[in-house]
């Protein structure tokens, strides 16, 4: 079952259950996937679907941090609920910090990176491997720390 089919089915069940928060989030996700499909001009591959979900999750996590800093507790609670819904559609297993470190170390060896100047080259090579499997901030900080050694 494609992501769009799954979102449609969940949207109907959220309507029946009168779960407004879940319904709104699922609608936003469905709109994001549909818009991406229109932009690329074909049905999305599973990797492209994960990319859209990752982008939506990242936006919510970034907003969550800002709202927490501003003391907007009501918005924080709403965003935490949305994050749980989005995470439900993500690939189930996110890599641990140690697993990310291993992948980054292998990539650094493959591209022959030796200093911070090679950061962009390493990130360009490692992100396709970890897309949807690990948080971008974790990957970024891991690459930075390994290149600073």
From TrEMBL:
Record GO terms (molecular function): carbon-nitrogen ligase activity, with glutamine as amido-N-donor
SUPFAM superfamilies to which the protein is assigned, alphabetical: GatB/YqeY motif (SSF89095)
PANTHER family tied to this protein: ALTERED INHERITANCE OF MITOCHONDRIA PROTEIN 41, MITOCHONDRIAL (PTHR28055)
Stated name of the protein: GatB Yqey domain-containing protein
């Amino acid at each position: 079952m494609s992501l769009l089919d799954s979102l449609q089915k969940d949207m109907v069940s959220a309507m029946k259950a009168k779960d407004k928060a879940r319904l709104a989030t699922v609608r936003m996700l469905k709109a994001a996937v549909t818009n991406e499909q229109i932009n690329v001009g074909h049905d999305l591959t599973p990797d492209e679907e994960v990319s859209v979900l990752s982008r939506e999750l990242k936006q919510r996590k970034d907003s969550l941090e800002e709202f927490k800093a501003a003391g907007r507790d009501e918005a924080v609670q709403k965003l935490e609920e949305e994050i749980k819904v989005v995470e439900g559609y993500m690939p189930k297993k996110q890599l641990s910090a140690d697993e990310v470190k291993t992948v980054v170390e292998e990539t650094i060896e493959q591209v022959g990176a030796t200093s911070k100047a090679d950061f962009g080259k390493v990130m360009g090579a490692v992100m396709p491997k970890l897309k949807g499997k690990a948080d971008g901030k974790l990957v970024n900080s891991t690459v930075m720390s390994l290149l600073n050694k």
